[in-house]
């Protein structure tokens, strides 16, 4: 009785395919690349580096943890430092009504803190071609920590007056006069006479108050308008 033999089997067509019907390729070369799972490539050298990094981290857990904290702290500090000083928004001069007046004064304070003479002049008196040169010198004469003190000057709610609007200024709750603004050509800017006084003394609107509180006035005692 002859024993029936099964015919030789060919390669299983399912081998070399993944669940999606794609080809799985394994191609390992020393120091080269490893191709896996549908054409994804992982560099052999990269795998070695990752493995060594993991081994080092396990062998030095305290150092690895400290390094992670330093990297994370640096990322957070960078994010804060980049976002803490926004650029001066000079477009606020075109905002209508009292909100536009208030925002103009707010951005003027920011320009003084940043020492941004070009933006300050655009906000306060754009028609004076000599303004930027004067204010560059005024801001450069003050340290950053000194200019930061303009944030101590408080702002009241804007009020409508015959010539335009005014915003009350205060220092530790005590009234320090007002910033008077007028509308010219559809935009807000500082009253011309008030600007002339600031230019004469080479002082910013807010820095003049800081100067007064620090006994550093260059033009003698003067008061901002009270009405």
* Secondary-structure element order, N to C: EEEHHHHHHEEEEHH
Distance between the termini: 125 Å
| Rg, nearest Å | 35 Å
Main-sheet strand order equals: 4-5-6-7
The main sheet comes to: 4 strands, antiparallel
What percent strand?
15-25%
- How many helices? The count is 8
Shape: elongated
Which structural class fits the helix and strand makeup?
Answer: alpha+beta
Q: Tell me, rounded to a whole number, the average pLDDT.
A: 75
Number of DSSP E strands: 7
Which range best describes the helical content: under 10%, 10-25%, 25-40%, 40-55%, 55-70% or over 70%? 40-55%
Instruction: State the low-pLDDT regions, or none.
Output: 16-43, 67-83
Give an account of the 3D structure.
With 227 residues, the chain is of the alpha+beta class. Helices cover 42% and strands 19% of the residues. It contains 8 helices and 7 strands. A 4-stranded antiparallel sheet has the order 4-5-6-7. A 3-stranded antiparallel sheet has the order 1-2-3. Strand 4 (153-161) and strand 5 (164-171) form a beta hairpin. The longest helix is centred in the first third of the chain and has 23 residues, at 61-83. It is elongated and about 75 Å long.
């Amino acid at each position: 009785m002859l024993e029936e033999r099964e015919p030789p089997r060919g390669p299983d067509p399912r081998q070399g395919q993944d669940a999606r019907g794609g080809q799985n390729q394994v191609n390992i070369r020393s120091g080269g690349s490893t191709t896996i799972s549908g054409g994804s490539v992982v560099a052999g050298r990269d795998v070695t580096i990752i493995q060594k990094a993991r081994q080092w981290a396990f062998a030095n857990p305290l150092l690895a943890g400290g390094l992670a904290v330093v990297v994370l702290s640096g990322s957070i500090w960078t994010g804060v430092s980049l976002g803490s000083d926004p650029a001066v928004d000079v477009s606020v001069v075109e905002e209508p009504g009292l909100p536009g007046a208030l925002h103009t004064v707010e951005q003027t304070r920011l320009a003084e803190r940043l020492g941004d003479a070009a933006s300050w002049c655009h906000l306060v008196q754009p028609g004076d071609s000599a303004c930027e040169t004067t204010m560059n010198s005024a801001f450069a004469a003050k340290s950053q920590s000194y200019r930061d003190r303009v944030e101590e000057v408080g702002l009241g709610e804007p009020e409508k007056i015959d010539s335009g609007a005014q915003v009350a200024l205060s220092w530790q709750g005590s009234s320090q006069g007002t910033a008077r603004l007028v509308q010219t050509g559809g935009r807000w800017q500082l009253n011309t006479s008030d600007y002339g006084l600031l230019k004469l003394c080479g002082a910013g609107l807010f820095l003049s108050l800081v100067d007064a509180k620090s006994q550093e006035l260059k033009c003698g005692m003067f008061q901002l308008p009270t009405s």
